[in-house]
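[09:14] KT: can someone run the structure on this one? pasting the chain below
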Amino acid sequence: MGPWALLAPLVAQSTAMAFDELYFHRKRGLGLWERIGHPLDTLTVLVCIAWVALAAPSPAHAAVYVGLAVFSCLFVTKDEFVHARRCTPGEHWLHAILFLVHPLSLASLALLWPSLHPPVADLQRLPAITSAARIITAQFVVTASFCVYQTMYWNLPWKKRMPATP
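[09:31] RB: done, structure tokens below
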């Protein structure tokens, strides 16, 4: 199994998010809580990607990354009390898949991390992945674009919305 296997969780997450957004969210609409919260979910992932891109791996930086990743994994669950009232069983199932894939995606980013920076003694046992910079850059661009889309599509004045209750 080569380094391209690290793409599987990222592709699975992107595919599931796109289906959730383009099918379930558009079908039922989003209330205020989700219109604000979903872009914030995406922002927590962007912060993780930015950390990997900008900080050289070290034990202290790895601890920060773990903190950011754990925060992101917990933060994305905040909407479940809203989803319990508004979502169909199919959307609940898709959310369960997303909750499984989310930490795997963040772990994939962590495994790509050492290949972006000069070798670090504690992490030299990991094989270098020559395409890591392209993968991380592409993931950042896709995720940032999705965040902008979520913010604009659901929050501009022309969009039909659900009631503002959570």
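[09:33] KT: thanks! The chain has six helices and no strands.
[09:34] RB: yep, looked fine to me
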